[in-house]
Amino acid sequence: MHISKLTLSFFLLAIALSLNLQSQDFQYENQYTVYQDLINVEDDAVQMRIIPPLVQDSIVVFQMPKVVPGTYKVHNYGLFVRNFAALSAQGDTLPVKRLDLNAWQIGKAQDLYQIVYKIEDSFDSPEGSHIFPPSGSSNETEVFLLNEFAYIGYLRAYKNLKFDLKVSHRPEHYGTTAWNGDRSDSLDVFSFLNYFVLHDNPLLYCAPDTASILIGKSQIELSVYSPNNKLKADATMQAVKEVLQASAMYLGGELPVDKYSILIYCEDDMEGQTSYGALEHHQSTVLYMPEMLGKDMFQSIRDIVAHEFLHIVTPLGIHSQYISDFDFADPLMSEHLWLYEGVTEYNSQLVQIRDGLYSLEDFIFVMRDKFIGNDQYDKVPLTVASRYTLDLFSENYQNFYEGGAIAAMALDLYLIEQSEGEMRLIDLLQKLRAQFPADTFFQDDQLFRIMADMSFPQVEEFMVRHFEAGQPFPWQRLFSNVGLSYEEVGISYGWSLGCDEFSYDLEQSRFIIASEEGIDEFGEELGLELLDQIVSINGDTLAIYNFQRVLDDFQTNTQAGDEIEMVIARPKKNGEFKFKELEAEAMEVEYEESHQIKVIEQPSEEQLRLQNIWLNR
Questions:
Q1: What per-residue confidence (pLDDT) applies to 297?
Q2: Quick one: pLDDT at residue 2?
């Protein structure tokens, strides 16, 4: 066969193009393919490559999340994108215009084959200081915390298509996640139904330290990254095992998931961080914690896991339309954060007393502390604060864990009162779950009527009066029904700490004597001075994470005549501290106690019956 030189050139070009296309990844009509490279990381930036679905539009917009479910705060994950480019199959650069912090407009989109960019992590980036760490990202040699909404975006109008995620990683790393995938020593492949499911399944890649147990028919997996190996997965699992078992009993005997993953990221240097905590997902939770040991650490983890796991009830189970079809770019907020966060926080404390992990005194102490916390916030109706939590009342968001929790307790006690013990809050929640399972939703403005239909007509008035109009709850009556007394302000007696006005030094992690006027007679006996920083009391180091426990131990165990030892750090002019050991005999003081809750000394049989229904005592 004779082939001319010109024909031969075209023939060779065709072969070259054919081979090039064969080496490229296939572009699907209804699927994204995402490549995430955890091996070739430069300057803490992960290379991302996304092959989007085929599109017919001439212009499309690539969107990174502005807000994600469970945070209720603007995070703007587009801040971490670097070197964004859109390419055709031939490698040509397509026109791109950045619309705002989180969106890029791509021209000639009918030719779009792949999107490439780098992502910096929020933990080390100046732009990440505003992001709640459990909803952030970490790109370190030894650990990657992959909240995928911080790495991966989507094309607007194409959010509900399948996502295949391919993660390249080092052989010594294992990626813990609740989602099943195909694993190897260097590449893990996961397939997600849509962007919501993708964002809902975080991964933690590090040297494996994992533990696994069965609770009922549910597999619970726990993975720990602890930079100095202080926290171990096995010991941590033992700390959370009881509270998960208690949650199972509260929910009717079984956990409502086949598998649940607890991902714990410990930080040995929390400089610049003012909070730790967790973010919930349908089958997992991410915890960001200080790296330390001791019963305070394990109690914190247990409390947090209890809260995050019980989000399975709401909003991961029961929720309104604003959660069901979440708008990552410009979300509308529900009126019912009291339900999503407040009820969850209340239930996380209730399950612990019902299963014997708390004493009645412990439970009263924890809930009274929430009354005090609620006093620090503006008196805004819960539904209003919820609706405008992203803007007008963003400073009130934390109050859903305080005021929202005590509102949930009020509703529980009201249901017990109205039903004479036949219905509790959990019973109403179970009815809501049955009518509105996770794949459906209620209309946001109809919830109070729906709750009344499932319980008692007067429940709607109760909700409107106290949750929507913000009127105070009838605490004296509600507590009296279950054998407790309540005074908004009562007289009490306790052992003095020497001062009643403190501030906190975040850098030193110590409480500071904030006012000379706050130093009482016992403080004068000790020799306390303005700006002294408390290091320890009777050998117990005092910090923000264990303040309640140390204070409770001090009040419970101190007796008349005891010698109290307090170590303080006194600031010097050069910025250093002089450590001093102070001693004085314990001194009991009378003080006004806000939100005083006490056990009635001689409760009636009916009060004890209802208390047992409430607290399983």
A1: 84
A2: 36
How far, in whole angstroms, is CA 505 from its chain's centroid? 24
Residue of 579, 495, 574, 500 whose CA lies nearest to 533:
579
The answer to whether the peptide bond before residue 315 is cis (omega within 30 degrees of 0) is yes
Provide CB contacts within 8 A for 59, sequence distance 6+. Answer: 105, 106, 107, 109
3-state secondary structure of 283: coil
Handedness of CA 124, 189, 163, 433 (dihedral sign): negative
pLDDT digits (tens, 9 = 90+) for 403-436: 999 999 999 999 999 999 999 999 999 999 999 9
Alpha carbon 423 to its chain centroid, in Å, reads 29
Tens-place pLDDT, residues 145-170: 999 999 999 999 899 999 999 999 99
pLDDT of 439: 85
Q: Which of 143, 151, 182 is nearest to 166 (CA)?
A: 182
Closest C-alpha among 260, 262, 257 to residue 302: 262
292-303 residue pLDDT tens: 877 778 888 988
Q: What is the DSSP letter of 380?
A: -
User: pLDDT category, 270, cuts 50, 70, 90?
Assistant: low
Q: In sequence order, what are the residues at sequence separation of 6 or more whose Cβ sits closer than 8 angstroms to the Cβ of residue 373?
A: 399, 401, 402, 403
Query: Phi and psi (nearest 5°) for 534?
Result: -80, 120
* Residues in contact with 4: Cβ distance below 8 Å, sequence separation at least 6, in sequence order: none
Q: CA-CA distances (angstroms) from residue 490 to 186, 484, 594, 598?
A: 64, 14, 6, 10
pLDDT digits (tens, 9 = 90+) for 212-254: 999 888 899 999 999 999 999 999 999 999 999 999 888 888 8
The residue with tokens 């084959």 is 113
267 phi-psi bin (left φ>0, alpha ψ -120 to 50, beta other): beta
Q: How many CB atoms lie within 10 A of CB 356?
A: 11
Q: How confident is the model at residue 177 (pLDDT cuts 50, 70, 90)?
A: very high
Bridge partners (DSSP) of residue 146 are 137, 203
Residue 23: exposure state from Cβ atoms within 10 A (0-12, 13-18, ≥19): exposed
CA distance 114 to 85: 9
| 577 alpha carbon, distance to own chain's centre | 36
- Output the pLDDT for position 410: 98
CB atoms within 10 A of CB 406: 21
Domains and CATH numbers, the chain: 23-205 (2.60.40.3650), 209-305 (1.10.390.10), 313-487+601-617 (1.10.390.10), 497-586 (2.30.42.10)
Nearest to 473 by CA among 385, 411, 425, 418: 411
Residue that has been written with the tokens 């603007």 in this structure: 74
CA distance 223 to 529: 45
Sheet holding 143-146, edge to edge: 137-139, 143-146, 203-206, 174-176
Q: How many other CB atoms are found less than 10 A from the CB of residue 79?
A: 18
Q: Do residues 387 and 334 touch, judged by C-beta distance below 8 A?
A: yes
21 or 66, which is more confident? 66
The band of 17, judged by pLDDT with boundaries at 50, 70 and 90, is very low
